[in-house]
Q: What sequence folds into this?
């Protein structure tokens, strides 16, 4: 019983293992961020600030909350933020 199976032996396999691993790491990272956002959303529900934009204080539309329950910005502030990010 001498296993010679080595994932590093075949470069193609290794590349796909690498990308699987990167994919899983990205997934985990995204999930961790999402879990953090959910915790924050629950805290905001508890302190009564849920559903208000944290930037301008305006109510976030119910449709937007349904689509993105963890959002902290109204659509206007969100698009301004995205615009700033795009410009760097
Ligand atoms: Zn706002």
A:
């Amino acid at each position: 019983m001498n296993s010679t199976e080595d994932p590093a032996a075949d470069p193609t396999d290794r590349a796909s293992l690498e990308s699987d691993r990167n994919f899983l790491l990205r997934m985990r990272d995204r999930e961790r961020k999402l879990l953090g956002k959910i915790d924050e959303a629950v805290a905001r529900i508890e302190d009564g600030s849920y559903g208000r934009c944290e930037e301008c204080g305006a109510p976030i539309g119910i449709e937007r909350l349904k689509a993105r329950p963890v959002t902290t910005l109204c659509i206007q502030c969100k698009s301004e933020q995205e615009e700033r990010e795009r410009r760097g």
Observations:
- The chain has two domains: 10-49, 51-88.
- The pocket of zinc ion is lined by residues 53, 55-56, 58, 73-74, 76-77 (CB under 6 Å).
- The chain has a mean pLDDT of 90.
- The two ends are 57 Å apart (CA to CA).
